[in-house]
């Protein structure tokens, strides 16, 4: 008993660093990552200039990377695209330093003749590319960005490649509190 009184008086003499007060609080917890999912997210980018809207969608499916580049004529008059070759567009995948890892037009031959593509009013033209599973597996760990563009166009459209959420990982949770009162 004497020890308890001695300890109690010691605590009363030493200025306290902690304090207790009355009030109420609200705790909020929400996930900052998903868990248990191994499905990658699709990625998407778009831009509009003049009378053209461009969209780039990327999805990983069954170990393959599918890229879709859409060109839409948003006006009521036809849009003409003139190229020096039969190549109309290109898609490049780069690493975090901008080094090219893959390019759609590599190892392709294009007719060396003037080419005109006309997109009708309010119509969409879709260009698709796919990396097979072997090619994608070889660059997947380094690949960060995909860029698609029409040749002879002032604009390039870029988006990040889809990433996986690890399966059986511990989810990241963010917890915050609001304290009301003294």
TrEMBL record:
Highest taxon of source: Bacteria
Domain Intracellular proteinase inhibitor BsuPI span(s) in chain numbering: 57-133
UniProt entry tagged with the keyword Chaperone: no
Protein name per its UniProtKB record: Intracellular proteinase inhibitor BsuPI domain-containing protein
UniProt xrefs under Gene3D superfamilies: Intracellular proteinase inhibitor BsuPI (2.60.40.2360)
Signal peptide positions (record): 1-20
Keywords from the UniProt entry: Signal
Organism: Selenomonas caprae
Keyword flag Signal: yes
């Amino acid at each position: 008993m004497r020890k308890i009184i001695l300890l109690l008086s010691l605590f009363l003499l030493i200025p306290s660093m902690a304090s207790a007060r009355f009030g109420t609080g609200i705790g909020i917890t929400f996930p900052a990552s998903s868990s248990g999912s191994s499905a990658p997210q699709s990625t998407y980018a778009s831009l509009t200039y003049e009378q053209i809207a461009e969209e780039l969608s990327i999805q990983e499916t069954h170990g393959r990377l599918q890229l879709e580049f859409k060109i839409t004529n948003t006006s009521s008059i036809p849009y003409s695209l003139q190229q020096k070759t039969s190549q109309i567009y290109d898609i490049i995948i780069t690493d975090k330093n901008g080094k090219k890892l893959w390019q759609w037009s590599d190892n392709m031959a294009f007719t060396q003749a003037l080419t005109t593509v006309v997109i009708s009013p309010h119509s969409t033209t879709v260009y698709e590319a796919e990396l097979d599973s072997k090619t994608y597996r070889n660059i997947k760990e380094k690949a960060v960005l995909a860029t698609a563009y029409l040749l002879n166009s002032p604009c390039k459209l870029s988006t990040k490649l889809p990433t996986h959420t690890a399966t059986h990982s511990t989810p990241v949770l963010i917890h915050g509190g609001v304290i009301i009162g003294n």
